[in-house]
Amino acid sequence: MSELDKQTQTELEAAAFRRLLEHLRERSDVQNIDLMNVAGFCRNCLSNWYREEAEAKGLAVSKDESRQMVYGMPYDEWRRLHQREASPEAHAAFETKKPAHS
């Protein structure tokens, strides 16, 4: 691929991020603990990264606001509609694979 200008690179990255969010919203059957165990990050991680980047630019974004941006609805509503109790195996896997990031 030829070298991209910064604006095009940013637009492509933003479009890919929007598609990732859309995919995660459509796949509400995939639990956060499962994402953590397989990929080392989850929807909450994405919302934290989003909030941290906003704050680095001097923008005040609350935890609730960043989670709503990722989940597409208030977090408590998503949990009520989609979150299930994780299996003992998922909990055990999480304890051995906990990522070190925030």
Automatic annotation (TrEMBL):
InterPro entries: SMc04008-like_domain, SMc04008-like_sf
Highest taxon, organism lineage: Bacteria
Coiled coil, from the record: none
Pfam family name, one: DUF1244
Gene3D superfamilies named in the record: SMc04008-like
Domain SMc04008-like residue range list: 30-95
Full protein name: SMc04008-like domain-containing protein
